[in-house]
TrEMBL record:
InterPro entries: DUF624. The keyword Transmembrane helix applies. The chain crosses the membrane at residues 20-49, 75-97, 103-125, 146-170, 176-201. Keywords: Membrane, Transmembrane, Transmembrane helix. This is YesL family protein. Signal peptide: none annotated. It holds the Pfam family DUF624.
Amino acid sequence: MDRFFDVGGPVYRVLAKIWGLMVLNFCILLTSLPLVTTGVSLSAAYTVCFKMHEKNDMQVIKNYFEAFKQNFKQAMVFSMIQSLLSVLFIVDGWYFVQTFHGITLPMVGVGVTALFILFITQYLYAYIARYQDSLKNTLANSLKLAVMNVFTSILLAGMSSGIITLMFLSSNLFVFILYMSVFIGIAFMIFLKSFLLLGIFKKYEKMKEI
């Protein structure tokens, strides 16, 4: 029984993971304050989570800021593009809602395009965290991964959109999810996603397709 609570025991490992994710969550929020750096923060967070899964490496702050610096240039390009596209989709969506009554073909087109981009971004920043590649290859391979693993793509996108949907179901859920996101929720979501993505990456690494 004593070993159960020893350093290196299951309780200690779980508590260490929880603490590590709380620290990671703080790092993500801190470096995402300019908003346009959100993609860089995500890529750094995926680096940390990959190391947690593969090596049980809990040097969160060190690993995070090393990855943030290393991935900054490439992730920043995609982060800025994603920010611009997000604003464009929001403006288009608002315009269609205000102008048209009911579903129109342009609305469907914008929705499908936004969903497709959402699928790609589920892999994009994790790919940057995992590999050193050109901008062109990073985007192309993220697209391939999204198409070749469509069910996982749906699951990954659903994890994010599902949480956002829950927030607007009631004021209590909104406050609860917001509270959890401030302390651990964002990092925990990336931790779960990184487990799924790591399995996919390793599959193709063995096949030498990436």
